[in-house]
Amino acid sequence: MELTTIWFIAIAVLFTGYFILEGFDFGVGMLLPVLGRDERERRAMINTIGPVWDGNEVWVITAGGAMFAAFPHWYATLFSGFYLLFFLILLGLIVRGVAFEYRGKGDTPQWRRGWDLCLVAGSAAPAFLWGAVVANIVRGVPLDANFDYTGSIWGLLNGYALLGGLTTLLLFATHGAYFLHLRTTGDLSARARATGLLLGAATAVPALAFLVWTQAAHGNAASLVLIVLAVLALLAGLALDFTGRGGWAFAATALTIALTSSALFCALWPDVLPSTGDPANGLTHENAAATEKTLGIMAWSAVVFLPLILLYQGWTYWVFRQRVSVERIPVA
C-alpha cells in the first residue's frame, strides 16, 4: 500500500475519532438548558465531560497537523478557501472552552446563564459547521489550475452542505443525550433517555436524505455498504435506548458516526478535494501529497507516538468512568 493511501486513511481515522469523541461533548453542551432544570443538574452535566473534553480536541489538532505534513496542497487550499467556516469553528471552540472555565467564577444566576448560553452556542456552531465543511469537501469546490479556491462563502452554503450540517448537529445532539443517559443517574438520566429517543427520531430523516444524496451524487460500492450500515446503526441506537440499554445505545450512535464518516471519505477517494469546474484542477491523494521521505518519517513517528496517546486517553476515560450523581453536587 502506498504511503499516500496510508496517510489518507490515517487522516480519515483521526477525523472520525474526533467526531465520535467530540460529538458527545457538543451534544452535552447543546442540551445544557434542555435537560438541566437547575444549577446542580447543569453542573452534573458539565462534570460528565469536564475531565475529557479538552483531550478529545487533540484528535482534530492531530488531524490538521497530519494533513499539513502529508498533503500540504490539500491543507493550503482547504484552510484558505474555507477560511471563514474554520474561523467560526475555532471561535465556537474558544467560546466553549472559556465558558467551561468561567461559568463557575461568579455566583449570580445571570452570570451563569450568560456563560451557559455561550456553552450552547460554542457547541452548536462547530457541530453544524463541521458537517458543512465535510460535505463541501466531498461535493467539491471550484478550483483553478493553481489549486486555489475561486468561489465565495455563499458557494459553501449550498443545499448539500446545509443538509450535512443539520445532520451532524442532530446526530451529535443525539449522541450527547445517550452519553448523559449512560453517565448520569436518577431523573436526569431518565430525561436524557427520553430526549435521545426524540432526537434520534428527528435525526433519521435528514441523515437518511443526506446519505442518499451522497450516494447518488458521489458514492461508490464501498460507500453504499457503509451508508446502509450507518442507517441500521442509527435505528439500532433508537431501539436500544427505547429498551433502556444506554451503554449499547451510545455505542450504536458512535458506530453511526464512524460509519457515516467512513462512507464520506470512501466517496471522496481517490480525491482529497474535487474541483466542480475543470476536473483536472482537482486535488487527489497523489498531486496533493508531500514527498515520500516526509511521508516515511511521519509514518515512523506515528508508530511511536500514536499508541502512547491512545493509552493515555484510554486511561483517562477509565479513571473517570463512574456515573455522575446530582445528589453529590453541592448546593450552590
From TrEMBL:
Highest taxon of source: Bacteria
Regions that span the bilayer: 6-35, 82-102, 114-138, 158-180, 192-213, 219-240, 247-270, 297-320
Q: Which keywords does the record carry?
A: Cell membrane, Electron transport, Heme, Iron, Membrane, Metal-binding, Transmembrane, Transmembrane helix, Transport
Keyword Transmembrane helix appears in the UniProt entry: yes
Subcellular location as annotated:
Cell membrane
| GO cellular component term of the entry, any | plasma membrane
Query: Per UniProt, what is one GO molecular function of this protein?
Result: oxidoreductase activity, acting on diphenols and related substances as donors, oxygen as acceptor
Per UniProt, what is the membrane topology? Answer: Multi-pass membrane protein
Q: Does the keyword NADP apply?
A: no
Provide the primary localization.
membrane
**A single GO BP annotation from the record?**
aerobic electron transport chain
In which family does this protein belong, per the annotation?
Belongs to the cytochrome ubiquinol oxidase subunit 2 family.
Question: What is the name listed in the Swiss-Prot or TrEMBL entry for this protein?
Answer: Cytochrome d ubiquinol oxidase subunit II
Upper lineage: Bacteria, Bacillati, Actinomycetota, Actinomycetes, Glycomycetales
